[in-house]
């Protein structure tokens, strides 16, 4: 929470969000300077990932079989309060943004509102099977299959407004390798 010595009301500015955010709006004079709290000062995020996985290895003769899997649960809780106190931009209609400010010319005003909270969740799943076959003491053949699913993020209240078809893909990847030791 930013330290705010001045309130919007100290300057005769009324804001519909002043009960929650009483500080003065950010005043921006383009390419010169900004006064007031950053319009992004009240942001918060907490990201957690839980993971569980296991692997089993079995050696028989010239074969070493490995199989395993993993599950991940991602939790991303965000509070994105942007422009909650408002922001006034003076762009320089008189040739200089400072002149616009001094003469009280109207500038561009932004006010953020709505629900700033986002509670995003995703689940990933993976498994694999691999056989390391020792053909010769100095030659090993590695055969395997791996499957990964990267689940898309979704908001717990259905407020996600983006779509990216590459976020949810299943990719079987057969592999063949040779290791000479």
List low-confidence stretches: none
Tell me about the biggest sheet?
6 strands, antiparallel
Shape: elongated
The DSSP helix count reads 1
Order of helices and strands: EEEEEHEEEEE
How many strands in all?
10
Mean pLDDT comes to: 82
Strand-pairing-aware structural class: mainly beta
* Proportion of beta-strand residues: over 45%
Radius of gyration: 28 Å
Name the assembly state.
single chain
How far the N terminus sits from the C terminus, by CA atoms, comes to 59 Å
Portion of residues within helices: under 10%
In a nutshell, what does this entry contain?
By secondary structure, the protein is mostly beta strands. It is built from one helix and ten strands. The radius of gyration is 28 Å and the shape is elongated.
Characterize the structure shown.
This protein is 3% helix and 52% strand. The chain is mainly β and 181 residues long. Strands 3, 4, 7, 8, 9 and 10 form a six-stranded antiparallel β-sheet that branches. A four-stranded mixed β-sheet has the order 2-1-5-6. Strand 1 and strand 2 form a beta hairpin. The chain starts with 25 loop residues before the first strand and ends with a strand.
Throw out a few tags for this protein.
181 residues, mainly beta, 6-stranded antiparallel beta sheet, 4-stranded mixed beta sheet, 3% helix, 52% strand
Helix/strand layout:
Blueprint: E1 26-29, E2 33-35, E3 44-60, E4 63-79, E5 87-90, H1 97-102, E6 108-110, E7 117-136, E8 139-150, E9 154-155, E10 169-180
Parallel strand pairs: 1-5
Antiparallel strand pairs: 1-2, 3-4, 4-7, 5-6, 7-8, 7-9, 8-10
């Amino acid at each position: 929470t930013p330290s705010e010595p001045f309130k919007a009301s100290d300057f005769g500015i009324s804001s519909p969000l002043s009960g929650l955010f009483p500080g003065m709006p950010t005043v921006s004079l383009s390419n010169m300077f900004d006064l007031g709290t950053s319009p992004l000062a009240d942001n918060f995020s907490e990201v957690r990932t839980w993971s569980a996985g296991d692997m089993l290895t079995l050696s028989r003769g010239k074969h070493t079989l490995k199989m395993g899997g993993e599950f991940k649960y991602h939790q991303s809780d965000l509070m994105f309060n942007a422009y909650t106190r408002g922001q006034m931009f003076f762009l320089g209609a008189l040739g200089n943004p400072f002149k616009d400010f001094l003469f009280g010319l109207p500038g561009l005003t932004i006010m953020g509102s709505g629900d700033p909270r986002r509670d995003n969740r995703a689940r990933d799943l993976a498994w694999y099977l691999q056989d390391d076959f020792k053909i010769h003491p100095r030659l090993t053949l590695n055969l395997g299959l791996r499957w990964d699913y990267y689940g898309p993020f979704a908001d717990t209240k259905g407020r996600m407004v983006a779509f990216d078809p590459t976020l949810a893909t299943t990719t079987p990847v057969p592999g063949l390798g040779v290791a000479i030791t």
